[in-house]
DNA sequence: CGTCAATATACGCTAAAGCGTATAATGTTG
DNA sequence: CAACATTATACGCTTTAGCGTATATTGACG
């Protein structure tokens, strides 16, 4: 159930999935971690310019964390292949 | 061997460890992924303002990837506890 | 369909990333 | 210690994130 995330879009999608699973709105999450709703929206949308701090705060706010591991060759590299 | 990374500093440290393990300089890595040596330096130093794209490019350049998982309670949250 | 919640966008403003280019501060080795 | 490599900083410049505030879109539901 751990998701590899190599692109901003994959990360955004994972965050959104989790948020919805928790049944919380961008607004709620935003006020929880001191970020604007619009910022969360951009992040979930896969904005590559998002600041690391913003991402980490949001992750934490959703009860998630990053793990760094060696790149597994199996997954398609081309990303977002649809 | 997979490292949880909850803060910019932890991430920077992990990247640096990996880079040294590969025996490559910041300069080499930088030209490899189209980033300046100074940028890599800041990233490894734990700059929270680093752009997501910069981080992901660097990770890829080092043959690493992120995995998103549920926050494990065991690790100390206070971070960088030394 | 109407209504209210939720999300995507917009605009002016401030702060700062990363660039290009250099140089200081450290490391590393012979 | 000398000489070279590596890494940390610096400065001006351009671009953009996120803020604050607001609104346009879209979604869910009675």
Provide the fold topology.
Two copies of one chain form a homodimer.
Chain A: E1 3-5, H1 8-21, H2 26-33, H3 37-45, H4 52-61, E2 64-70
The first copy, chain A, binds a DNA duplex (30 and 30 nucleotides) through residues 25-27, 35-42, 44-45, 47, 49-51, 54.
Written description of the protein model:
2 copies of one chain form a homodimer. The first copy, chain A, is an alpha+beta fold and 82 residues long. Chain A has a domain at 8-61: 434 Repressor (Amino-terminal Domain) (Orthogonal Bundle), CATH 1.10.260. Helix content of chain A is 50%, strand content 12%. The radius of gyration of chain A is 13 Å and the shape is globular. The interface between A and B is medium-sized, with 32 and 32 residues. The first copy, chain A, binds a DNA duplex (30 and 30 nucleotides) through residues 25-27, 35-42, 44-45, 47, 49-51, 54.
Key features?
82 residues; 50% helix; 434 Repressor (Amino-terminal Domain); alpha+beta; homodimer
Brief summary of the model shown:
Two copies of one chain form a homodimer. By secondary structure, chain A is of the alpha+beta class.
The largest chain-to-chain contact, stated as pair and per-chain residue counts, equals: A-B, 32 and 32 residues
CATH topology of the domain at 8-61 in chain A: 434 Repressor (Amino-terminal Domain)
Percent of residues in beta strands of chain A: 5-15%
Low-pLDDT runs of 5+ residues of chain A are: 78-82
Q: In total, how many beta strands of chain A?
A: 2
CATH homology superfamily of the domain at 8-61 in chain A: lambda repressor-like DNA-binding domains
Q: List the secondary-structure elements of chain A in sequence, H or E.
A: EHHHHE
Structural category of chain A is alpha+beta
Q: Helical region count of chain A? A: 4
Alpha-carbon distance between the two ends of chain A? 21 Å
